[in-house]
Amino acid sequence: MSEGSRIGEWARRLKRDTLMVWLAARDPRVPWYVKGLALCVAGYALSPIDLIPDFIPVLGLLDDLILIPLGIWLVVRLIPAPLALELRQRAAERLARQRPVSVWGAVAIALIWAAAIGVAGWAIWG
């Protein structure tokens, strides 16, 4: 297997597991604390806006390469294995039909950026 195909397979699994985590956040069989974590991870992963923009060298890709997979891994570990398998199958079926996007995740990230800019402005001019 070539390096490019391994990376492509990893990316497909990451997309599927991101959607799986989003589905877990909405599933009544998942404990409330796992739902909360799953909602945060999926909202951030599916948001079109990054907390650290990708154009910032090294740090911009850090969230995509480390933080998101780590969050997904943690949520998956907290979900019972049979339920995780069921949610993975549902996620794979959904991905075959459409690409998910989190509008609320984008709103949350935009609010964080706005707050950071406001605090920076206050610190500089206040």
From TrEMBL:
User: Which keywords are on file for this protein?
Assistant: Membrane, Transmembrane, Transmembrane helix
State the Pfam families in the record.
DUF1232
Q: Domain DUF1232: where?
A: 35-70
The record's listing under InterPro entries reads: DUF1232
Q: Where in the cell is it found?
A: Endomembrane system
Q: What is its main location?
A: membrane
Can you supply one Gene Ontology CC term for this chain's record? Answer: endomembrane system
Q: What's the protein called, per UniProt?
A: DUF1232 domain-containing protein
Q: Could you tell me which species this protein originates from?
A: Vineibacter terrae
